[in-house]
Design a protein that fits this description.
The protein has a domain of 175 residues: Undecaprenyl pyrophosphate synthetase, CATH 3.40.1180. The relative contact order is 0.18. The N terminus is likely disordered. The protein is of the alpha/beta class. The chain contains seven helices and six strands, in the order E-H-H-E-H-E-H-E-H-H-E-E-H. The longest helix has 24 residues. The chain has a six-stranded parallel sheet, sandwiched between helices. Bound molecules: 3-methylbut-3-enyl trihydrogen diphosphate (IPE) (2 copies) and magnesium ion. One 3-methylbut-3-enyl trihydrogen diphosphate binds next to helix 1.
């Protein structure tokens, strides 16, 4: 991966979030077990992570396992957990070499110890990465994250809860995660047009991009297409076209 500093004509600093959907259908359509789709999906993760910095992406949040995904058959859950472990162990060197900082958002207390250890090791090894902040959402529920952040913010504020304090608490609720900016572009692959409890607060003004492509088949060119479309959009944040287009500071609630 080339350092993004070599690219001069792309505005840096985008936060792109992706709901990586369609692994199972991709596999079944090819007569393969669903787990094969998840494995191919992990290869897509590598491609997309490596393509991101040159597209001006500085924060990339990937939905890998929702808190509702525990409802899936035990066998599939086990395969996914094994995959997270092997991905984290196998990719750490590569992430490190590419200057990627990896953190994981979501609950950890329900993960098996080997998965938790692999997360902690990858986070520690990549902590100094500055090219890209990769956030993997594992056992993640946005509603649970907002509830936890509200509890945290209310406990430390000593005053009324504000959108600003809640935003700050969302970033810092998990000690291992660094505060992340609001999402600029939300992508969902796999044809569904819903959020499935992902980054509900952080997507308040996100541009939405839905693709019918299944995640294992999603390419760097597809990501570039989504980012190009993002740049063609007019972001008004509730203001008017002639006004400067800056994201609003969080209002008091
Ligand atoms: C997304 O692909 C990956 C996870 C939810 C873990 P799916 O497994 O949801 O694939 P489809 O939607 O069934 O095709
Ligand atoms: C969302 O996909 C979760 C991930 C991509 C990790 P799902 O396949 O679980 O979502 P629904 O069930 O279609 O809403
Ligand atoms: Mg799905």
């Amino acid at each position: 991966m080339r350092p993004s500093t070599l690219i001069t004509n792309i505005p840096p600093g985008l936060h792109v979030a992706i709901i990586m959907d369609g692994n199972g259908r991709w596999a079944v359509a090819r007569g393969l077990p669903r787990a094969a789709g998840h494995r191919r999906g992990a290869e897509t993760v590598r491609t997309i992570v490596e393509a991101s910095p040159d597209l001006g992406i500085r924060t990339l949040t990937l939905y890998a396992f929702s808190s509702d995904n525990w409802r899936r058959p035990e066998r599939e859950v086990r395969a996914l957990m094994r995959l997270f472990r092997t991905y984290l162990r196998a990719e750490t060197k590569r992430l490190l070499a590419n200057g990627v900082r990896l953190t994981v958002i979501g609950r950890r207390d329900r993960l098996e110890i080997p998965v938790r250890s692999a997360i902690e090791a990858a986070e520690a090894a990549t902590a100094d990465g500055t090219t890209l902040h990769l956030r993997l959402a594992i056992d993640y529920s946005s509603r649970d994250a907002i509830a936890a952040a509200a509890t945290l913010a209310a406990g430390s504020a000593g005053g009324p809860l504000t959108a600003q304090s809640l935003s700050a608490a969302l970033g810092g609720a998990d000690a291992a995660d660094a505060p992340a900016p609001d999402v600029d572009l939300l992508i969902r692959t796999g044809g569904e047009r819903r959020l499935s409890d992902f980054l509900l607060w952080e997507c308040a003004y996100a541009e939405l991009w839905f693709s019918d492509i299944m995640w294992p088949a999603f390419s760097a060119a597809d990501l570039a297409g989504a980012v190009a479309d993002f740049h063609s959009r007019e972001r008004r944040f509730g203001g008017l076209v002639a006004q400067p287009v800056e994201a609003p500071a969080a209002r008091a609630v």
